[in-house]
Amino acid sequence: MKIKNILVLAILAGTFCSCADLITPSVENAQTEEQMFKDPASAQGILGYAYGNLPFETKSTTDIATDDAVTNDLASSYRSMAQGTWTANNDPVSQWQARKITIQYMNIFLNHVDEVQWSDNPKRQAMFVDKLRGEALALRALNMYYLLRNHAGWTQSGELLGVPIILEPEGMGSDFNQPRATFKACVEQIYADVDAAMELLPFDYAKPASDADVPKKYQDLGVTSAEEYSVVFGDTFSGRISGRIAQTIKAFTALLAASPAYAEGSGVTYAEAADAAAAVLNTIGGVAGVDPTGYKWFMEKKTLDALGSGACPPEILWRGSMNKGTEDYAFGISQEKDNFPPTLYGSGRINPTQNFVDAFPMANGYPITDPESGYSASDPYAGRDPRLAEYVIYNGATYKGTQIITGAYSTDNNGINKISTSTRTGYYLRKLLRDDCDPNPSATNAQYHYPVYIRYTELFLAYAESANEAWGPDGKGTHGYSAYDVIKALHDRAGVGNDYLDSIKGNKEKMRELIRNERRIELSFENKRFWDMRRWKLDLNESAKGVRIEQVGGALKFNKFEVEPRNYQPYMYYGPIPESEVLKWSNLDQNKGW
C-alpha cells in the first residue's frame, strides 16, 4: 500500500511541548510507506496525526442538545438535532470517519515502529520503540472508546454491537466489508491495548529520582543513568499519552460498559469500573487528592498563567497546549466572544436553562424541592450552592464589575430576548470563561486558556457512581474510600453542607440521584451531559425551560416557561452507524431504529 498526501499538522510542536528535536515532522509528505519509515521525522508524523486529531470536544457544544442549555445561534446543528433532525445521514456527533482514520494510522505506525531508526544508540533505540509503540496502542484504545460511545448499540436482531475491530493496516487488497464486533469484544480490545501500552509507557513522564530508580528492564539493557532514561521518558514529553492516561481510558471504558444502556450485553460490572478508576485515584491518595479549587479550575488565573511546558495543575490529568491568541479559532478569547452578555461585547451563545439552575441545591446541601432546604421561590438565588454563582450569570449578578440584569425589565440588551444575542432563558454562561478577558474590538484583551482533555473530578465521579452501585453509598471494596467520601469531599471544597448527604447515606437509590446530579453540576458545559443521559437512559425529552422576570410594583415576579422542546426517539440512546457506510457494506448492521 502507498500512503498518499499525508498532511502532518504543524500543531505537533505545541502538542509535544519541548521535544521538537525528535518529533518535528515535515509539514507535508507524499511518500511511499517504505520511504516514510526510513525517516524518523516522517514516521513520527503518522503518530502525530493522532495527536493532531484527538477526539475531545474542548469547547462546549453538545450541552445545548440537552436539558442544560439552549443557544441563540438558531442555525446550530446541535439545536436542530435536539428538535428532531437527527438521522443516520445527518449526525452532528458522528465520530465514525475521524476515529477509523486515526486507528488506520495507528495500525500503520504499529506495523513499522520497530523498523525505524529512532536513535543510533541501541539502548535508546529500544526505549524509543517501547515508548512510541505504547503511545500508539493507547491512542488506538482512546479512538476505539469514542467509536463505542458514539456508535455502539443494539441491533434489530437483539445483539449489542460495537464497531469492526481492525488491528492491521488496510490497503488495496483488504476486505472492507467487515461486520461489527460485539460491544463486549470491543471493550476487551480496548483493555488489551491499554494493558499492553502500560507495559511500555511510564505511568508519568519524569526523570527518576536516582539512577537506581531506572526501571529494571532498562537497567538490564544497560541503561544505568537516570539522565539517559530521561532522554526518552523524561518530563519533556509531558503532554503525550502516558500510563496514567491510558489507565484512565480503561476506567472510562469500564464505566460506559457498566452503565444501564450497555451492562446487559457488556459483561462489565460496576465493581470492575470502580476498581479501574481507583487504580488511578489511589496514586494521588484517593479523596485526599481532591483539588481544593478544582471546581473552578478555569478561573485559577495565577496557576494557569504560570504553568510550565506540559505541566498540569492538580485538577487536570491531561490537557492540550496553552493559547492566548485572538483569532476566532484560537482559545485566547473565543469563548468569551461567544458567551459574554451583549453589553460585554459577547454573543451570549450558550444559555443555561432553568432546569440546570434548579439542579443546584441550597448551600446546606438540600435539593430545592426538599422542605428542609429553605429555598424561596421569590428569592431563588439566595443561599444556593456557591457553584451556581461560579457557573451561571443570573439576574442581578455582578460580572466584570457590572450588574447584569437578564429580566424583561432590563434597560439594556442583556435582558431576555432583547436582541438576537440576548439570553433566551434568563441566564448567561459563566463557567469556562475568564473575567479578565475583554472582547471589546477596540481594546481586545486575550488571556491564556488550554483545552482540557481529562479532569480528575470526572474520574472521582466515575468512582463514586461505580462504587455506589457495586457496594452501596459507604462501601469501599478494596479501597480506602467510598462514594459517600467522594461526594463529601466535592461538597466540602465547594462550600456545600452535608446534612442531606448524611441523611441518605444508607440509601443507594437516593445516593445514585445525588451522584448523577453532582456530575451534572461539576462537569457542566464540558460535553458530558449529552452522553451521560444516554448511558443512564434518562428522559431525553424534558423541555428546556427559562425564567422571565418582571418587575411589578417594585417586586420581582419569576415566571418559568418553556424555551425549547426536545424531540428524541427511544432508539436515540444509541447513535447510528452512518447511513452511507451501511449502504456500502452489506455486513455492517445498523442500530435498531435508525
Structure description:
- The chain is mainly alpha-helical and 594 residues long.
- Among the domains are: 226 residues, Serine Threonine Protein Phosphatase 5, Tetratricopeptide repeat; 125 residues, no CATH class.
- Helix content is 38%, strand content 8%.
- The chain has 23 helices and 14 strands.
- The strands form seven sheets. Strands 1-2 form a two-stranded antiparallel ribbon.
- A hairpin with a 5-residue loop joins β4 and β5.
- The radius of gyration is 25 Å and the shape is globular.
- The protein starts with 5 loop residues before the first strand and ends in a 10-residue tail after the last helix.
- The N terminus is likely disordered.
Give a brief rundown of this model:
The chain has 23 helices and 14 strands.
* SS content category: mainly alpha
* The CATH C-level class name of one domain: Mainly Alpha
Total of DSSP H or I helical runs spanning 4+ residues: 23
> What is the distance, rounded to the nearest whole angstrom, between the alpha carbons of the first and last residues?
35 Å
CATH topology of one domain: Serine Threonine Protein Phosphatase 5, Tetratricopeptide repeat
What is the level-2 CATH architecture name of one domain? Alpha Horseshoe
Main sheet: strand order: 1-2
The tally of strands reads 14
Shape: globular
Write the layout of secondary structure elements.
Blueprint: E1 6-7, H1 12-15, H2 20-23, E2 28-29, H3 33-36, H4 40-52, E3 69-71, H5 77-85, H6 96-112, H7 122-151, E4 153-154, E5 160-161, H8 183-200, H9 216-219, H10 226-233, H11 243-258, H12 263-266, H13 270-281, H14 301-305, E6 316-319, H15 334-339, E7 350-352, H16 354-359, H17 387-391, E8 392-393, E9 398-399, E10 402-403, E11 428-429, E12 452-455, H18 456-471, H19 483-494, H20 499-503, H21 508-522, H22 529-536, E13 544-552, E14 555-564, H23 579-584
Antiparallel strand pairs: 1-2, 3-7, 4-5, 6-12, 8-11, 9-10, 13-14
